[in-house]
Write a structure and sequence with these properties.
There is one protein chain. By secondary structure, this protein is of the alpha+beta class. Helix content is 32%, strand content 18%. The strands form nine sheets. Strands 24, 25, 26, 27, 28 and 29 form a six-stranded mixed beta sheet that branches. The chain has a four-stranded parallel beta sheet with strand order 2-1-22-23, with helices on both faces. Helix 3 links the parallel strand 1 and strand 2. Helix 1 packs across helix 28 and helix 4 crosses helix 5. The termini are far apart.
């Protein structure tokens, strides 16, 4: 039955039994079972229909479960032992679910497009496809060796043409959709055209720049109006332009000091025409629907904060350039607004900037420039080199320049100066703020630096002024910090409306209503979330399925022309720039250097015409937005997924009302972007009727990290941890002293440990068991090579309880287990099941260890442990250490893989303890223990204890004055 035969081919040291469980034997067992699992399709999950439906009749009555990891990016370094922590966890859980009666889909693919592969290719001259495929081979080998129970028929790679064909198809569905705010859903653009033609709908605000009714617009003008509604659209967006990389970066790819995360190049903020996805249309649903999924609250809150929904008011201040609209969450403080600030990127900056300085301008307002125009131009250029994060850093020195113009505060008629300052971002609200320095800390810091008026409109409580050691008459410009709390409004009245004496909510409502009557404002909700920048000036990404006509309008390719394959290139690096003029450079995507590919003649329904292709590519996020759907039906060449298959695996159920993946495991570093983008795509597809699940991931679980010692030399540079020597608590590298610290295992700290080392030294089952045993899955934990030996020895003890190390024969008996052993078995089953369900695999391993230790103590020296206990032990061990469990199971005479055996179920009648050990005290000090029936009442407990021979001897002739009984716990005998 054994997959490695009965004999041993290993030469062991003298005195070591020939059939002992060793790393070499573990390796042979593991490879043999991995081969068998692959050969027999052990982990194939059957679909209800289609090419992967073989065997569905056998599992049709089982509940379905979809367990998934966030798929990895295949780097050149391969895996280290920190990577598989989550992969092992999901594998343990998936195996447990399968043994508990579920049809389980568990697979893994690879996110292989992106900047790292392209930059490595540029550095080495190798094509990114070649390096990616080499990396994939390494990853697949390492993951297979770990024994993960994946259905590899379903594995996908985002760079595969068959996969990005459907990524392009989904992009076209997004392009051909718009968001109907009244219906709160995405709808096909064809329906928008029909509504506009029928005059049952007018273009949304801001989408018709021509100012004429729809019937009077030309065909091209109508296209512009409709394109302004699309969920995928082109816009002159302010972006993070990185000349050193030759591409635009997302905010998340820029460091706080305004440099690229990869390569450390300067990044500049500047407007460029880019593809955008209108994720902001879904902002409310993306927030509200978090309440319907089972996610860590910390992750849900990160998404809420990222979306940043705020309620307040839009207020319009009159200026020489027309109205400047600001959004404020505190309209109640309008009477305290003493200046306006525009973001450097605000479109009205040029228009409000005066030709010359006013005669009474303060010198610190001018930035030392001779004119407002010169001051603003130089300031905007400097601000373009700062990231949004840097600009928002608390406590950072405030900078800015005066535009030379003022605006009219609508509530008090005062002219307030207009500044340009980088602490205001174009990406939030309107890109303009009304500054109320008495009640906003950043505004106060700016006002104090530039000597601007500070007007108190909220009376701080006495305890606030006392805490800051100021009096009620202290001018607010001298306050040590702004008062940002609630309070009673003061100095807030005009001839028509008074807020004095009101609280925040009532004052805000009253002034907003007044503004609305005056035509100077209205209630509003705004969001920090910006539309998703979806263009990259790179080669190694999905081509857009878009061409441009003679009017420069984007034209979607028909589905029949998909996929648009990435053309072969030898010069696949984008053009990069350096030097003083780099900030003013323009992107030149690599694909633009292929004129034969870019310029095409196509018949798109109105005859053969010339078009030119989009030369940007999609960002790396594109494939990861929907890969969980493609796993369901990866061989389908006609659709991105069969609807019946999607409903089966991801459709809503009674215990999963939104639908989606039943368990999704990955690092918390993806809490916002990947998860937010994937939710957005899912909702578009759901609204358009392409999927039945409204959320992609019903339950989210964040695994911790594995940390390891890292070592830095005197320069602060990290050195290879594996080459550091320890002597008497001191550490050296190549003879030089280094300092030790602990951090997340990885390439940057040079503290990686390859799983291959663990496979060779202990076997994959030991690595799996060690990573699951070192703590709860969601917690980070240290890596300790020396501690691995503990779980290795546990597997050796399990092996000895089943196999005779001298002969290799099974040593279990058919004898019935005694009552104590049987009860311990069923308590273990209950505890292990509880640990598996809660993903507390460390507690499950601890209970398995206790049971195995009991068997060792009871039957280790002679005879064999009862089969009725050993077999359930192996079944409980199987999800955690599947190879050795399979091997031992087969040696007990079972022909079928235990992957589909039934996980043990505890007998509830054996979970109660019939006896209990209680403490016996004499005058409050424990003198003895005794075992009593667990259900003994107070009287019985006292009688049994006093009748115990040990207690009788202990009391001798003592005078028992009182007996205090706590049933099931203790008896305290008080003597005189």
């Amino acid at each position: 039955m054994s997959e490695v035969g009965d004999g041993s081919t290993e030469t062991l040291p003298a005195g070591i039994p020939s059939h002992r469980y060793t790393a070499a034997l573990a390796g042979r067992i593991e490879r043999a079972w991995q081969d068998r699992w692959e050969r027999e399709g052990t982990f194939h999950a059957s679909n209800p229909t289609g090419p992967l439906s073989d065997g569905f009749d056998k599992v049709a009555g089982r509940p379905r479960r979809y367990v998934l990891d966030m798929f990895p990016y295949p780097s050149g370094a391969g895996l280290h032992v920190g990577h598989p922590l989550g992969y092992i966890g999901t594998d343990v859980y998936a195996r447990y679910l399968r043994m508990s009666g579920a049809n389980v889909l568990h697979t893994m693919g690879f996110d292989a497009f992106g900047l790292p592969a392209e930059q490595y290719a540029v550095e080495t001259g190798q094509h990114p496809r070649d390096t990616t495929e080499a990396n994939l081979r390494t990853y697949r080998r390492q993951l297979r060796r770990l024994g993960l129970g994946h259905d590899l028929r379903r594995s996908i790679v985002t760079t595969d043409v068959d996969f990005y064909h459907w990524t392009q198809w989904i992009f076209l569905r997004i392009f051909d959709a718009w968001y109907d705010a009244a219906a709160s859903k995405a709808r096909p653009v064809a329906e928008l055209w029909a509504d506009l033609d029928a005059r049952v709908r007018e273009p949304d605000q801001g989408t018709n720049p021509y100012g004429r009714p729809w019937p009077e617009l030309s065909t091209v003008e109508r296209r512009h109006v409709v394109d302004a509604h699309r969920l995928a659209y082109r816009s002159d967006a302010v972006v993070n332009w990185c000349p050193g990389l030759g591409t635009v970066l997302a905010n998340e790819e820029v460091t706080p000091d305004g440099r690229s995360e990869r390569g450390n190049f300067p990044v500049y903020r500047r407007p460029l025409t880019q593809w955008m996805l209108r994720i902001t249309a879904f902002a409310d649903r993306l927030i509200d629907d978090l309440d319907s999924v089972d996610w860590p609250e910390s992750v849900a809150q990160m998404q809420r904060n990222w979306i940043g929904r705020s309620s307040g008011a839009r207020v319009r201040f009159g200026s020489p350039a027309g109205d400047i609209e600001v959004f404020t969450t505190r309209p109640d403080t309008l009477f305290g607004a003493t200046y306006l600030v525009l973001a450097p990127e605000h479109p009205l900056v040029d228009e409000v900037t005066a030709d010359r300085w006013p005669d009474d301008v303060r010198p610190e307002w001018t930035g030392g420039a001779p004119t407002p125009g010169k001051a603003v131009t130089e300031y905007r250029k400097a601000a373009s080199g700062r990231s949004d994060l840097e600009r928002q850093t608390e406590g950072r020195d405030k900078t800015g320049v005066f535009t030379g113009s003022t605006a009219l505060n609508p509530v008090n008629g005062e002219q307030v100066p207009i500044f340009v300052a980088d602490y205001v971002l174009m990406g939030y609200g309107s890109g303009a703020i009304m500054a109320v320095p008495a009640h906003d800390q950043r505004d106060l810091e700016f006002a104090q630096k530039f000597h601007l008026p500070v007007v108190k409109v909220i009376e701080p409580p006495a305890e606030w002024t006392e805490r800051h050691r100021i009096g009620p008459q202290t001018p607010p410009a001298e306050w040590p910090e702004a008062y940002t709390g609630d309070g009673i409004l003061v100095a807030s009245a005009n001839a028509d409306v008074s807020l004095n004496g009101l609280g925040k909510e009532e004052a805000g409502t009253r002034i907003t209503a007044w503004l609305q009557v005056q035509g100077r404002g209205e209630p509003a909700i705004t969001y920090k979330l910006r539309d998703w920048l979806f263009s990259r000036q790179r080669y190694w990404g999905e081509p857009f399925p878009i061409v441009y006509d003679e009017h420069g309008l984007p034209v979607p390719l028909p589905d029949s022309m998909l996929p648009v394959e990435l053309p072969e290139m030898t010069d696949f690096s984008p053009r990069t720039y350096d030097g003083p003029d780099a900030a003013d450079s323009e992107p030149e995507p690599p694909l633009s250097r292929l004129p034969d590919w870019v310029e095409v003649e196509l018949d798109l329904g109105d005859g053969l015409k010339k078009y030119h292709r989009e030369t940007n590519t999609m960002p790396q996020w594109a494939g990861s937005c929907w890969y969980e759907i493609r796993y369901l039906d990866p061989t389908n060449h006609d659709r991105f997924v069969d609807p019946e298959v999607e409903r089966y695996w991801m459709g809503p159920t009674a215990d999963n009302p939104t639908g989606g993946v039943d368990l999704y495991v990955g690092g918390v570093e993806h809490a916002v972007l990947h998860l937010l983008y994937a939710r957005f795509w899912q909702k578009v597809l759901y609204d358009l009727g392409h999927v039945s699940a409204s959320e992609p991931f019903a339950r989210l679980f964040n695994q911790g990290y594995i940390q390891a010692a890292a070592y830095a030399d005197e320069r602060g540079f990290y050195v290879p941890a594996a080459q550091v020597t320890e002597v008497d608590g001191s550490f050296t590298y190549e003879g030089r002293p280094v300092t030790r610290e602990f951090g997340k295992m990885g390439k940057s700290l040079k503290n990686s440990v390859a799983p291959d080392e663990m496979y060779a030294e202990y076997g994959a089952d030991t690595l799996r068991l060690y990573e699951m045993f070192t703590g709860p899955l969601e917690q980070s934990r240290p890596w300790d090579n020396k501690a691995v030996i503990g779980v290795y020895r546990l597997l050796q003890r399990v092996w000895r309880n089943v196999v005779d190390e001298e002969t290799g024969s099974p040593r279990v008996s058919s004898d019935a287990a005694d009552e104590e052993t049987r009860r311990q078995l069923h308590r273990t089953i209950a505890a292990v099941r509880e640990g598996m369900e809660a993903l507390r695999f460390n507690t499950a391993i601890a209970r398995i260890t206790e049971l195995n230790n009991h068997l060792t103590a009871r039957w280790g020296a002679a005879g064999g442990a009862p089969r009725e206990v050993v077999e359930p032990l192996l079944l409980m061990l199987a999800p955690l250490a599947p190879h050795v469990a399979e091997e031992l199971w087969s040696r007990l005479g079972h022909a079928r893989s235990l992957a589909w055996e039934t996980f043990p179920i505890a007998d509830p009648t054996l979970l109660t303890t019939e006896t209990v050990e209680i403490a016996v005290q004499v005058n409050g000090k424990v003198r003895a223990t005794t075992v009593l029936p667990a259900d003994a009442d107070k009287a019985s407990t006292e009688a049994l204890v006093l009748a115990d021979a040990q207690v009788i001897r202990m009391l001798a002739d003592a005078d028992v004055q009182r007996v205090i009984v706590v049933p099931g716990r203790l008896v305290n005998i008080v003597t005189g």
